[in-house]
Amino acid sequence: MDTIATISLARPREEIAGELGRSFAEYGFAIVRDHTISQELIEKADTLARQFFALSPEAKHEYRIEGGGGARGYTPFGTEIAKDAAVHDLKEFWHVGRTLAEGHPLSAYMQPNIWPREIDGFRETFEQLFRAFEETGALILSAIALHLGLDADWFEDSVKDGNSVMRLLHYPPLPHDAPDGAIRAAAHGDINTITLLLGAEEAGLELQDRQGNWVPVSPPPGALAVNVGDMLDRLTNGRLRSTTHRVVNPSGEAAKRSRYSMPFFLHFRPDFLIEPLPNCTKPGEPAPEPILAHDFLMQRLREIGLA
Ligand SMILES: O=C(O)CCC(=O)C(=O)O
Ligand SMILES: [Fe+2]
């Protein structure tokens, strides 16, 4: 396989499992089209995200949750810093999490959502998009399960009421006073299970291949870029790879434009034990220690300045 696979989710899972798995094993990424998120919903969400980021800095700061680690609401420009990076990313974002019923046993792990009062339909649209991402994510996970030789529903319980987060991202036009070396999103691996990304048709996203080359990831409009996160990498003992990726700065005219994207970070449930799968380990060979998904997340959030 010499390129990232493009996969139609309209095909039976049994048929796509191999191709998807090979792309994840080699590149950690696949392009997924014909997914279950409607174009109408994507466009609505995109419009509302743009409306939110167009609010004044003062209005947006109202939605920053002090001490909340950016888990919900607004995180301003210049907050997140990739692990081992020297300067902050050139981005601002809004996080939507799961809405849990009152008294839900997992509510200790998840902060409640907040919503911008200025934007009509924001809550409804993004709650709907959250559900749609989950539905598509479940289909992709069942194909991954088949690829790994597991039952198609193996992941169902592992992600039920998981701590998934949808991120609305805005990379503003390149500021003239950006610190040396600052880029839109510095090289990083995603922490979670799998990420489903909308909006990456606007250039800039790149993954690092095994040889260390940076390879552009350019899905067609409306398609998803899907990648393996560190938690799935750990569960599979590296058989499916969480690859380092970044968003580079545009040059020329594109530098005067904003870039918007929407990743959905699909997470295991906080009390899921990430323990390498037996068929991904060999006796006598080293494998990662089992760790609870919540503990793993906390460890990683501290490293990126968000916890
Ligand atoms: O904006 C993008 O295209 C990718 C963003 C990303 O990798 C992230 O937020 O983890
Ligand atoms: Fe990422």
UniProtKB/TrEMBL annotation:
<feature type="domain" description="Fe2OG dioxygenase">
    <location>
        <begin position="161"/>
        <end position="268"/>
    </location>
</feature>
<keyword id="KW-0479">Metal-binding</keyword>
<protein>
    <recommendedName>
        <fullName>2-oxoglutarate-dependent ethylene/succinate-forming enzyme</fullName>
        <ecNumber>1.13.12.19</ecNumber>
        <ecNumber>1.14.20.7</ecNumber>
    </recommendedName>
</protein>
<dbReference type="InterPro" id="IPR005123">
    <property type="entry name" value="Oxoglu/Fe-dep_dioxygenase_dom"/>
</dbReference>
<keyword id="KW-0560">Oxidoreductase</keyword>
<dbReference type="InterPro" id="IPR044861">
    <property type="entry name" value="IPNS-like_FE2OG_OXY"/>
</dbReference>
<dbReference type="InterPro" id="IPR027443">
    <property type="entry name" value="IPNS-like_sf"/>
</dbReference>
<comment type="pathway">
    <text>Alkene biosynthesis; ethylene biosynthesis via 2-oxoglutarate.</text>
</comment>
<comment type="similarity">
    <text>Belongs to the iron/ascorbate-dependent oxidoreductase family.</text>
</comment>
<keyword id="KW-0408">Iron</keyword>
<dbReference type="InterPro" id="IPR026992">
    <property type="entry name" value="DIOX_N"/>
</dbReference>
<dbReference type="GO" id="GO:0009693">
    <property type="term" value="P:ethylene biosynthetic process"/>
</dbReference>
<dbReference type="Pfam" id="PF03171">
    <property type="entry name" value="2OG-FeII_Oxy"/>
</dbReference>
<dbReference type="InterPro" id="IPR050231">
    <property type="entry name" value="Iron_ascorbate_oxido_reductase"/>
</dbReference>
<dbReference type="GO" id="GO:0102276">
    <property type="term" value="F:2-oxoglutarate oxygenase/decarboxylase (ethylene-forming) activity"/>
</dbReference>
<dbReference type="GO" id="GO:0046872">
    <property type="term" value="F:metal ion binding"/>
</dbReference>
<keyword id="KW-0266">Ethylene biosynthesis</keyword>
<dbReference type="Pfam" id="PF14226">
    <property type="entry name" value="DIOX_N"/>
</dbReference>
